[in-house]
């Protein structure tokens, strides 16, 4: 049986938006072994809990817990449910551990998430975790190819679907998820790693500037 969990919500959660069954299954705080912090709820250590799960954006878990020369770790873990921009959340959850994360906390966190029907991928505490570090350079490349006139968006998407077996092409994926959202994620990656492949593509910069100036709402 999975551990019981309770939830504290400080704002809108990207991993578990309103109406998600995970929210309804939470139990009374006094009975819960696992504490789940959603929507920017501040983290406070609580050794009485088996595990504390902190919802992450692009930031590292260490932003919330602090770090200690590679010796950090406790009963706190980070997590983020993969979501393509404004799309509904996927079943994939990236679960973030630190070097000395409690094994009991890790087991409890995994059990809670898997009992909710989610698929858990364990990763270390890196900005962008697994999916964004793999995916965003490919989306950037497709946007740059579009700027360079290599092919139309339709032809690039068709090539990736038919030639590579992808369920959708890169341009349709990044546009559906939101170019401004793509900009925000790639900018965060680029600021940490400095790798040119993470630098926001021109079209995403334009989308972010239009969003921030309010032109998209005009």
Structure in words:
With 218 residues, the chain is α/β, with parallel strands linked by helices. The protein folds into two domains: 5-123, no CATH class; 133-211, N-(1-d-carboxylethyl)-l-norvaline Dehydrogenase, domain 2 (Orthogonal Bundle), CATH 1.10.1040. Helices cover 39% and strands 14% of the residues. It contains eight helices and six strands. It has helices at residues 21-24, 62-65, 103-115, 131-148, 153-164, 170-177, 179-193, 202-213; strands spanning 5-9, 34-38, 51-55, 76-81, 92-96, 119-123. A six-stranded mixed sheet has the order 1-2-3-4-5-6, covered by helices on one side. The chain is elongated.
What count of helical segments does DSSP give? 8
What is the number of domains?
A: 2
- Biggest β-sheet: strands ordered side by side in the sheet: 1-2-3-4-5-6
Mean pLDDT value: 95
Provide the succession of SSEs: EHEEHEEHEHHHHH
The helical percent reads: 25-40%
Strand content: 5-15%
Low-confidence stretches are none
Major sheet:
6 strands, mixed
SS-derived structural category? alpha/beta
* DSSP, total strands: 6
Shape verdict: elongated
What value does the Rg take, in angstroms? 19 Å
C-alpha termini separation: 52 Å
